[in-house]
Structure formats: C-alpha cells, structure tokens
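In the design runs reported in the main text, the only information available to the sequence generator was the tokenized backbone. The following block is the verbatim input for one such run; it is reproduced so that readers can re-run the procedure and compare outputs position by position.
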C-alpha cells in the first residue's frame, strides 16, 4: 500500500471512529507532517490531501481517492477499522486512539503510526 493511501485511511478512520474533524496528520514512517483533513457526517467521509491536491471520500464502506482513481474500503467497529486497498490488493487494520492511529498493512507485515491533529 502506498504511504499516501495509509495517511488517507488514518485520517478517515479517526474521523469516523471519534467523530472529530481531522486537520492534519504526522506520519512517523516518513517523519513529516501531512496536510490532510477529513470529516465524517451522516455516513459519509469528506477529505482532502492538500499535499497531493487530491480529494477523497464517499459513503461508507467505500472511500474513493480522486487522484489515484481507486476505491478503498473502510468498516469501523468500536475503536478499530478494517478494509481493503484495491490499488495494492492488500488488507489493513487500524487501531484508533484519541490522537493517534496505528495501521497494520498486511501486505508489508508492518505497523505504521500517525499522530492526528484535530480541528
């Protein structure tokens, strides 16, 4: 899975599970702040990745990345989310905390951590 896809998933999962607007993400693997915003209302995610000038979102369980023209599924249960990235053909799991999201990328067998800035 591409790093920007993981960041999109982190922002979306946090918005869905906490109900808070995401104003930015810090990607620990890349060691940099990402300009990603997301919000969840009425069963729909709306977001923008300003670093890529790309909108993303959709009605759950499907998210659409307009830049990559690809769907990613996201199903939330409690403080966790699971889904499938159609671009890479890989599954993921996400654990969401108050200001952190950890994503396990099954294709890479690795955890990725993101700090979340809320609006």
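Verbatim output:
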């Amino acid at each position: 899975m591409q790093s920007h896809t993981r960041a999109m998933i982190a922002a979306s999962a946090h918005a869905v599970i906490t109900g808070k607007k995401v104003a930015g993400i810090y990607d620990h693997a890349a060691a940099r702040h990402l300009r990603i915003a997301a919000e969840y209302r009425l069963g729909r995610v709306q977001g923008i990745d300003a670093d890529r000038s790309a909108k993303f979102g959709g009605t759950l369980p499907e998210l659409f990345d307009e830049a990559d023209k690809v769907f990613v599924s996201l199903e939330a249960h409690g403080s966790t989310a699971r889904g499938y990235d159609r671009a890479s053909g890989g599954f993921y799991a996400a654990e969401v905390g108050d200001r952190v999201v950890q994503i396990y990328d099954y294709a890479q067998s690795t955890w990725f951590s993101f700090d979340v800035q809320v609006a």
